[in-house]
């Protein structure tokens, strides 16, 4: 029967995809499921393109782990969302704790972005250039980049990425921007100010790490996605998962299925929402239980790669979208 990516393409999306990570790739059953391209037409490396992985010491680049994931995508003819160039987490100590001036950190940032994007040139459908630059209240996160360079670090990162690979789509990516809020307004302002300065930005990634029963309605998600596309950028759901307090119950599972359906349908129904990526497709490798103890079962497949009710919710979100 038709599966997620095949259905998504038929419904007008560019892809349905999933994150994966290097530690998963020794699991042959997992790799077989991941490589089923009627299910997943796109991969995001979950960790191996982050700064601590790619440039662990100054100007020493370590692309091996990232290359393993990108090679798998290439072998499978899957699209790649490359993730992520500038983020306050998973920074190597030399960046996080370095003694910086505006000039030296700008140079280090430009070097990191330029060398990384150049290495993957031609392979990435898109790059998450800057990830999670905002606080919940809409102010800029006090990362080493913001405190040293100011908000201009965002423009500097996008400029360097655009210069290194003019053909990859450049995204700003964040969480808790899936409904109207001060943070969402601030994300809209990032898009506006980059555009106003003539800086290339192509897309806005809505991570969509949700909780069962408290996800925004389909209508709210649609209106919110349109508030971004109205600025002339495409949008994508980039890290969808919907966690619950364990143990799972029949009621939680069916609510989760509805919640998946709503998010997927929202993307399908918005012109210029290009695709949906889940943040791991199976509960075995989900980041959720270790980060939010007592919660889990956030994915479409269970630990044994069996499709859950949530999976069929996602299918309904694609095929039933009006
Ligand atoms: O690399 C070390 C390894 O050397 C060590 O042996 C091992 C022991 O715990 O830890 C490894 O690092 C872990 C890393 O993943 C790689 O597996 C970190 O502890 C762990 O915290 C890290 O978690 C990742 C998290 O980002 C970090 O914030 C998750 O796997 C990854 O799924 C998650 O992804 C983020 C997105 O990039 C951005 N949006 C939110 C999303 C979920 O947090």
TrEMBL record:
Any idea where the GH10 domain is?
7-317
Q: Does the keyword Signal apply?
A: yes
Parent-record interval covered: 16 to 337 of 479
What GO terms in the biological process aspect are recorded for it? xylan catabolic process
**Catalytic residues as annotated in Swiss-Prot or TrEMBL:** 239 (nucleophile)
Question: Which family, according to the similarity comment?
Answer: Belongs to the glycosyl hydrolase 10 (cellulase F) family.
> What enzyme category does the UniProt record give?
hydrolase
A GO term for molecular function: endo-1,4-beta-xylanase activity
UniProt entry keywords in alphabetical sequence: Carbohydrate metabolism, Glycosidase, Hydrolase, Polysaccharide degradation, Secreted, Signal, Xylan degradation
The protein's name in its UniProt record: Beta-xylanase
Cellular component aspect of the GO annotation: extracellular region
**Cell compartments where the protein resides:** Secreted
| Pathway linked to the protein | Glycan degradation; xylan degradation
């Amino acid at each position: 029967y038709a599966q997620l990516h095949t259905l998504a393409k038929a419904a007008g999306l560019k892809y349905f995809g999933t994150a994966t990570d290097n530690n998963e790739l020794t699991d042959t059953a997992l790799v077989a499921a991941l490589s089923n391209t009627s299910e997943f037409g796109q991969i995001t490396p979950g960790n191996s393109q982050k700064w601590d992985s790619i440039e662990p010491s100054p100007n020493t680049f370590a692309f091996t782990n990232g290359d393993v994931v990108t090679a798998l995508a290439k072998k499978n003819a899957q699209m790649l969302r490359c993730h992520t160039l500038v983020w306050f987490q998973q920074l190597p100590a030399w960046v996080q704790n370095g003694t910086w001036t505006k000039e030296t950190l700008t140079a280090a940032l430009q070097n990191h972005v330029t060398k990384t994007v150049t290495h993957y040139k031609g392979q990435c459908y898109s790059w998450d250039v800057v990830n999670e630059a905002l606080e919940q209240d809409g102010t800029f996160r006090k990362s080493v980049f913001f405190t040293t360079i100011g908000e201009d670090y965002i423009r500097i990162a996008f400029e360097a990425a655009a210069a290194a690979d003019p053909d990859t789509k450049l995204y700003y990516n964040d969480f808790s921007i899936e409904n109207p809020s001060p943070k969402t307004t601030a994300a809209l302002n990032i898009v506006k100010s980059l555009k106003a300065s003539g800086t290339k930005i192509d897309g806005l990634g809505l991570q969509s790490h949700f909780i069962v029963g408290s996800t925004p309605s389909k209508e709210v998600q649609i209106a919110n996605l349109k508030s971004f596309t109205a600025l002339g950028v495409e949008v994508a759901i980039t890290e969808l998962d919907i966690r619950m307090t364990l143990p799972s119950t029949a009621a939680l599972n069916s609510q989760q299925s509805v919640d998946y359906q709503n998010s997927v349908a929202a993307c399908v129904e918005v012109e210029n929402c290009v695709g949906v990526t889940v943040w791991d497709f199976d509960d075995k490798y989900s980041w959720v239980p270790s980060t939010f103890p007592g919660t889990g079962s956030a994915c479409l497949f269970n630990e044994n790669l069996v499709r859950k009710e949530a999976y069929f919710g996602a299918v309904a979100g694609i095929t039933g979208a009006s």
